[in-house]
Hints:
Elements: H1 20-53, H2 64-85, H3 89-94, E1 96-100, H4 108-123, H5 127-134, H6 141-146, E2 148-152, H7 156-169
Antiparallel strand pairs: 1-2
Amino acid sequence: MTTGTQPTALTSLQGHYAGAVSRLAAFAIDMAVSSGLFALGLAVITYVVNLLTSRHVAWNKGDIIVAVVYVGWEFLYFAYSWSVDGKTFGMAVLGVQVVRADGTDLEPRQAVIRTLALPLSFLLLGLGFALMLVQREHRALHDLIAGTAVVYAWDARAARIRFLARQARVPRPVPGGQHPASGTERS
């Protein structure tokens, strides 16, 4: 019988299904980033048109052209990000990733299908997202349609080990004026 307490080990969530809160937070970050980039793009276009033609261009939210371009931009933002790396900026920040239902890397075709199906989860009064709360895999309607799942991709334990390894490689001054790497006296 041992009398000491055993330290609790850091456990990794890597590969586990991502929860609804992580996914919602990543989506909120992505909407803020993509909308900000869209607004920045409109501002740059306005500036360039004003600079070249001396005409002021005003963008109206009610313009059908602006709405269509915005929807196209959002499609491009999500579909491209998911097809290239399996994650968007918000997902990377929160350490989650889209994979195929069997856990392998996402194919571009599935990224496009998932992006096209994403609005269905909203259009059904959010019931498409409610599926995340009742399934073991936390898959939403658009995940079921595209054959995808969202998993944690960031390993906290591995990141801590890498951080500690970097700290161990940094030479530290030794009292007495010797350089730690060579053991020689510094001048």
